[in-house]
Amino acid sequence: MAEPIAVVSSYRTELIDYILKAPTTPTTLVICASRESFLQHLQADVQSAPSAPSDESNDNTAPHRFLIPTIHLLASTRSIRLAFTPSLPHLRSYLATFQSTLEMDSHPASQPNRSSFSSVLVILGLVALHHSTSEYSAQGLSRSVAIAVEAANSNSMRLVLAEIRKENGDENPIVDNEFVIGTHNDPWKEQIPLLSGSTGFGSEERVWAGRTISIGRVIGRWCRFEQLDAEELDG
Predict the structure, then answer these.
(1) Are 194 and 218 contacting, i.e. CB atoms less than 8 angstroms apart?
(2) Of 72, 136, 147, 204, which residue is least crowded by CB atoms under 10 Å?
(3) Are the CB atoms for 84 and 41 separated by under 8 Å?
(4) Residue 177 region by backbone torsions, left for phi larger than 0, else alpha for psi between -120 and 50, else beta
(5) pLDDT in tens, 147-195
């Protein structure tokens, strides 16, 4: 089985680009938010995020490529399944009963790395979903990641955990308790308590009772940290 990986993106559009660049790999994208909230944030990203340059034009005023229904874009979405889990119990229940139904195109030429792994399970915002809950701890995160790893392994899928980076100047790093976590540009540096239910004090920066550990050390027990690179999805 392929080793699980963890990635950080500045924009949701950047993560979707990452998935679409591996169109022959069936992907289940689990979004830890409501559909309405995700679409609202995605629309904001489309308006503000830089679009990948195209071969046809270098015009910076051109619409984002996600707004142009090209044949490649439409064909790529055929291999992607979406699921929305707006709460932590919802996410854990979904993963505990998860079964992949996506299959590769039957044409051999479209399956260059079938021997490596057949499909990918991407979870966007797993860590952020724990924020403002009693499970925002090493204990709580470990439980959720273990469930995700088991779901991926039992379906012969590669697991990708993705989080959204807090940008400089963002005065509201927590938006509806979804997607953006902590006060660091690198979310893996955020400190959390070891045990669930630890009391936190403070407003802008949480101060936890007892020992703390970085999110990166918790996630690193399960995943390898990578830059966004579509070649990782292709094996």
Answers:
(1) no
(2) 204
(3) no
(4) left
(5) 999 999 999 999 999 999 865 444 433 344 444 455 557 889 999 999 8
